[in-house]
Amino acid sequence: QVQLVESGGGLVQAGGSLRLSCAASGRTFSAYTMGWFRQAPGKEREFVAAINRSGGSTYYSDSVKGRFTISRDNAKNTVYLQMNSLKPEDTAVYYCARSVRLGLSPRSNEYDRWGQGTQVTVSS
């Protein structure tokens, strides 16, 4: 059973940066597209970014494009989300997830394994 464990969340001022990590158990990490999602209080979970198996292709939501960078290290079974120029509206619980598709998908129902989430709070 694959487990995903996020870390790196915290409290940061607007304009600051954080790097989230998601460590995966198991030996098949490199076989899967991975994604990051977030959920703010009272809102639906929304797509943030996705990365293909090799790390050569990425896809971002319009709300984070140019500010966030997704990457992965298959040797370490880890996917990262570098978040720069953070805004108060980025405040949410951030989740990493494993996709069932080879392509880069923003649809949460195409991800079958989820981490427990890590809280990111951006103060104004």
What are the SSEs and their pairings?
Layout (H helix, E strand, L loop, with lengths): L3 E4 L2 E4 L4 E7 L9 E6 L6 E6 L6 E3 L7 E6 L4 E6 L8 E8 L11 E4 L3 E6 L1
Parallel strand pairs: 2-11
Antiparallel strand pairs: 1-3, 3-8, 4-5, 4-9, 5-6, 7-8, 9-10, 9-11
Describe this structure in words.
The protein has 124 residues and is an all-beta fold. The chain is built from no helices and eleven strands. Strands 2, 4, 5, 6, 9, 10 and 11 form a seven-stranded mixed beta sheet that branches. Strands 1-3-8-7 form a four-stranded antiparallel beta sheet, with no helix packed on it. The chain is globular and about 40 Å long.
List the main descriptive attributes of the protein structure presented here.
seven-stranded mixed beta sheet; mainly beta; 124 residues; globular
**Strand percent estimate:** over 45%
Shape descriptor reads globular
Residues in helix, %: under 10%
- Strand count: 11
Low-confidence stretches: none
> What radius of gyration results from the CA coordinates?
13 Å
Topology pattern, helix = H, strand = E: EEEEEEEEEEE
Structural class: mainly beta
Tally of alpha and pi helices: 0
